[in-house]
UniProtKB/TrEMBL annotation:
<dbReference type="GO" id="GO:0005524">
    <property type="term" value="F:ATP binding"/>
</dbReference>
<dbReference type="GO" id="GO:0004672">
    <property type="term" value="F:protein kinase activity"/>
</dbReference>
<feature type="domain" description="Protein kinase">
    <location>
        <begin position="11"/>
        <end position="294"/>
    </location>
</feature>
<dbReference type="InterPro" id="IPR000719">
    <property type="entry name" value="Prot_kinase_dom"/>
</dbReference>
<protein>
    <submittedName>
        <fullName>Kinase-like domain-containing protein</fullName>
    </submittedName>
</protein>
<dbReference type="InterPro" id="IPR050167">
    <property type="entry name" value="Ser_Thr_protein_kinase"/>
</dbReference>
<dbReference type="InterPro" id="IPR011009">
    <property type="entry name" value="Kinase-like_dom_sf"/>
</dbReference>
<dbReference type="Pfam" id="PF00069">
    <property type="entry name" value="Pkinase"/>
</dbReference>
Length: 381
């Protein structure tokens, strides 16, 4: 991991993959590869040789801020730890003059993994394993006294292993930490962050709760509505994504581990940040839930060798009314600057999500009443 600055001419076969809110991602071949060790006989560094990597080219980064450079140093340092994507160093495109992170190449992010598989090949066991690994990665980050600030499925990478990437990179490269704008992906952001407060370990845990629920339901949060001022207001008022409704299923006795997961998710996205568990606690509980699933699967299949536990559970989940596939055209899952309404209310928990009345509906009803009132006035005159 001793590579820091890497000349751009050390890369070849550069191919565009995708773009996010503040960067474009390319695959490339690193001709020399990372440093492996010092060879005293040849008096030179030995390298791994040609290596496939990802280049994350940062938009408008020719005038990179000192704060952002510090974030890059943190990312490189954190690359020594498991559960975190490796950052080998930094380079610069000689044409655009934009800086680029040289990252470990991982085939999929969590979002593409979940939805390209179209619900079919991701068993409940796989989902719980992914959740456990994400929890572990976030715990590692928090154990280093770092805050991710932008945790969402686009920043979680999967290719045999599950890795967290891009922590600290939720703002443009030319902005400083004193910038008062709010950046991120709205559906994954804690209500206190939407109100302009600072990112904390607890706000990361809120995002983790939203992600865990998305993995189980295979439904993006708030995908059935525009991501606008009304949604921001409703999140502060206590609106949360639908969880799996285990109490209404024919296999409810087999879903105790999912009931425990629902409880954990709801603790993570509590409106009061003080009530949220630590990432370490989430890590421990997610492991317990995975073990409960394994034990229950073994017990059920030992009783009846022809019984397919995973198939039964997965069929039940797909029938669940909590799951909705279609996404609204004005839903947005890309990081960016958020246009937030002023004077948002103090975050609160809503006791029953099924009875939540959206601010959008209330506003429409109020507008309709006003219009009717105006029409009546017209009739009077």
């Amino acid at each position: 991991m001793s590579s820091k600055w890497i000349p751009y001419n050390k890369f070849e076969n550069i191919k565009y993959i995708a773009k996010g809110g503040f960067a474009k991602v390319y695959s490339a071949e690193w001709i020399d590869g990372r440093i492996k060790r010092w060879n005293p006989l040849s008096n030179n560094w030995e390298r791994n040789g040609q290596t496939k990597i990802a280049l994350k080219v940062l938009n408008d980064s020719e005038n990179i801020s000192e704060d952002f450079l510090n974030e890059i140093k943190v990312l490189i340092k954190a690359s020594y730890y498991p559960g975190i994507v490796k950052c080998f160093g930094i380079t610069r495109d000689p044409i655009s003059l934009n800086y680029a992170l040289v990252l470990e190449y991982v085939k999929n992010d969590l979002r593409s993994y979940l939805y390209q598989n179209n619900n079919n090949s991701i068993t409940c066991g796989k989902k719980l394993n992914i959740i456990k690994r994400i929890c572990y990665g976030l715990h590692i980050i928090h154990d280093m006294e770092l805050v991710h600030k932008d945790l969402h499925p686009g920043n979680i990478l999967i290719d045999g292993v599950t890795l967290i990437s891009d922590f600290g990179f939720c703002i443009p490269t030319n902005k400083t930490s004193s910038d008062s704008n709010v950046y991120g992906v709205m559906p994954y952001m804690a209500p206190e962050i939407l109100r302009g407060e600072q990112h904390t370990l607890a706000s990361d845990v809120y995002s983790l709760g939203i992600i865990m629920n998305e993995i189980v339901t295979v439904t993006p949060p708030f995908n059935n509505q525009p991501h606008d001022h009304f949604l921001v207001l409703d999140i502060c008022r206590g609106l949360r994504p639908n969880t799996i409704r285990t109490e209404t299923t024919e296999t409810s006795n087999s879903l105790n581990f999912l009931k425990e997961l629902n409880k954990l998710i709801e603790r993570c996205w509590d409106a009061n940040s003080i009530n949220r568990p630590t990432s370490g606690e989430v890590c421990d509980i997610s492991l317990d839930i995975l073990n409960d699933y394994i034990n229950q699967k073994q017990a059920e299949e030992q009783k009846n060798p022809s019984y397919n536990f995973d198939e039964t559970i997965d069929t039940t989940l797909k029938k669940n009314p909590s799951i909705t596939i279609e996404t609204h055209s004005e839903a947005n899952y890309t990081s960016g600057i958020l246009d937030l309404p002023p004077n948002l209310p103090e975050p609160t928990n809503w006791p029953n999500q099924q009875e939540f009345i959206s601010s959008r509906i209330y506003s429409q009803d109020l507008l309709a009443k006003n219009l009717r009132s105006e029409c009546l006035e017209c009739m009077v005159y």
